[in-house]
Amino acid sequence: HTHTHTNRAPQNAMRVSVSKVVPLCVLLLLLAALFVHHQRQQLETKEMMEQQEELLEVLRRDNHDMTLYVEHMKESLAESDEKQAALVALVTSLRAEIAQAASRRSADAMPSNNPDGQARDNGFAQYVPHNLEELYPERHPHRLAILIPFRDAQAELTVFLPHISTFLQAQGVDFHVYVINQIDDYRFNRGQLLNIGFLTAKDDCDYIAMHDVDLLPLLPHRLPYLFPPHPTHIAAPWIHPIYHYKNFIGGIMLMTNQQYARVNGLSNNYWGWGREDDELYKRIVESGMKVVRPDVNTTRDGAALRHIHDQEVRVRDMMQVGEQFRISKQRDTTTGLHNVDYELVERKELAFKNVPYTQLDVRLRCNQEVTYWCIKPKNCIKGYYRHQSSGVCRRCTRKCWVGFVLVGTCTEQSNPQCLRVGRDISPEEAKKWPAGNMPLPK
To answer: Which of 44, 213, 434, 437 has the most Cβ atoms closer than 10 angstroms to its Cβ?
Structure first.
């Protein structure tokens, strides 16, 4: 009995000692974890800042104007700790892009490796911007004419002019802007306006950019506006915010004077909005030239181009009158640069925010026996309604998503609406209207 009692005392003492040591160990482990976490955060921040400095040095060495982007990231870092992870990923991605561009040399990258503009895909080639001097060795002697087909878009022009000036100065491009302003009562004709702009600018500039006024390029280090060895489409389908079909070459297109003259410019027969650039693509292919585009991995999701067009304020005239739709799909072999018909009403030398530009006020002429759709119809044709604020005839809504119904009828005064069953309209009332069959957008 005595022996057993003497053994219990040390056991009790050990239990008391362990009960005191365990919380102390847990506390020490927590403190150590907090210290490691703090040190890791400091290390990640330091590494990120080093990556930013390294990226900035690479960009400076390669003549890329990305200083403002990196400085903005530094300012954002100071604003919130929550942005650190996103900024680390962004800087790492940019750094990888620069390294990739520096190391890659595809067959289409340099003009010397691709003298005939041979393409691997349906008449298109891709370039990988790296060093602009290497890609376009004769950049400095050239002068670019920015041709803007224009009508009632003063708000967009006041944004475009200072933006494009800053963008092109970053690339060292000598340029002048030409605004070709259609002041007659005919429907808008982008092709004729670009032909007029070319005829005006060709003696002062040796290459052109056919440029929509509502499309702003955002990455000067990835989208060079330099003298193009081949017709160069800046607003590629994977870059343009709206148009993504394969043969699209609208928005922003660069051509030398010789290339533009070789295809006889654009057709003069496209009145209203659209399809004149699709016809230009056919001319380029028939001439034996290839269209060069930015690399498909350059950028996506609106990061390269900003679209500033307000469809509700400035409605596009997309009505197809009579045979217009059928004829617009055919190759026009009769009109072009050689027979554009117009009257120059006034030439104005203007400036906005120290950016000089030339505005040409022109009246177009239309052969109504050939393209009777140049005249704005007094009444909207079947399938169109008149937009209240602009007076332009717009196509009526014809299809709805699954779960919606098309309510109303298409007249000149009204446009059917897509209403969601159970939210906008009761299931009983919805039975009276056509059900939508388009898959819901992701």
So the answer is: 213
The pLDDT tens digits for 164-175 are 999 999 888 999
Amino acid identity for residue 311 in this structure: Q
Burial class (CB in 10 A: 0-12, 13-18, 19+), 4: exposed
Closest by Cα among 135, 103, 61, 250 to 126: 135
Q: Report the amino acid identity of residue 392.
A: V
- Could you list the beta-strand ranges (E) of 308-386: 342-352, 355-364, 384-386
Residues 6 or more apart whose CB falls under 8 angstroms from that of 250 comprise 212, 235, 240, 243, 277
Please name every residue paired with 124 in a beta bridge, in sequence order, or none if there are none.
Answer: 121, 291
3-state secondary structure of 62: coil
DSSP conformation class of 352: E
Q: Is 146 exposed, middle or buried (0-12, 13-18, 19+ CB in 10 A)?
A: buried
Contact 260, 91 (CB under 8 A): no
